[in-house]
Amino acid sequence: MTVFRIRRPEIGSVALSAIATLYLLMLANNSFWSHAVVYFDHAWIAMLSLGTALALTTFSTLTSLSMKYVTKPVLILLIAISAAVSYFTDTFGVVIDKEMIGNAAVTTQAEAGHLLTGGLALHLAIYALIPSLLIAWVKVRHRRFFAKAAVNFLFIAPALVLSGVLIYANFAGIAYALREHRDLMVRFNPAGPISSAVRYGLSTYRERNLVVQPLGTDAKEGSRIAAAGKPVVVVVVAGETARAMNFSL
Asked: What is the per-residue DSSP string for 91-105?
């Protein structure tokens, strides 16, 4: 009996990092690019310089992590995160910032259940499952440690230098757009959402060490309250109710 075996394709770790970079920038960042076009207006050179610099930086980061037993899990995790984030940003127009991460952390099962739709499942299957299976299937060629470090450096160093040159040459236009529209970099997927999650985790950790202390222990009832002949009603406006339309209370 003849057994047919499909030969696994091989790819270099640097080439895989480059392909993953293009995938993330082109297919998982619709929200980022659509808003960048609006925010930069007609400053196309500045916008393309920023996009190229981000691509080079992403490529450098992925290449620096392209080690045996590391590169595949990292790429699969990043692709899964970017696929989930891109669905919510493209479908609902939300920004996955620190506050949104906090909302997701405290949401209930009933609230989250409304978001688990067939559209989400299909999106994750196309943009997360299929590319993840391809990454798991291919055979990645790795050099020995010192040879890999040298080759990776030959790619990373020029990429970072070129990224810096592009930012420096168009700093005025890039700085203006980012200063006026601080949400743009938060939309850059998956770096923005990951940064938001880290900041939320750090703030939550700091809040765990807070010690609740009483305030205003020297406060006393004023003459108007003391002279009141009936119970005094106190209205506290807090949270989302603190809006001008409710101030008539």
From this structure: HH-----HHHHHHHH
Please give the Cα distance from 136 to 130 (Å, whole number): 10
Residue 226 covered by a domain = no
DSSP H or E run through 131: helix 130-137
Instruction: List, in order, residues 6 or more apart from 164 with CB less than 8 Å away.
Output: 53
Tokens 């899990």 appear where? 73
Q: What is the pLDDT along the chain (249 residues), one digit of tens a residue?
A: 555 567 888 999 999 999 999 999 999 999 999 999 999 988 999 999 999 999 999 999 999 999 889 999 999 999 999 999 999 999 988 899 888 898 888 777 777 778 888 999 999 999 999 999 999 999 999 889 889 999 999 999 999 999 999 999 999 999 999 999 999 999 999 999 999 999 998 888 777 777 778 887 887 777 777 777 788 887 777 766 566 666 665
In a domain, 157, yes or no: yes
On whether residue 245 sits in a domain, the answer given is no
Residue 220 in any domain: the answer is no
Q: Are residues 88 and 116 in contact, defined by beta-carbon separation less than 8 angstroms?
A: no
Q: Which helix (H) or strand (E) holds 61?
A: helix 44-64
Q: What domain range is 143 assigned to?
A: 10-208
Return d(Cα 116, Cα 1) in angstroms, integer. Answer: 47
Report whether 31 contacts 160 (CB < 8 A): no
User: Cα separation of 137 and 10, whole Å?
Assistant: 9
pTM confidence score: 0.79
Q: Domain total for the chain? A: 1
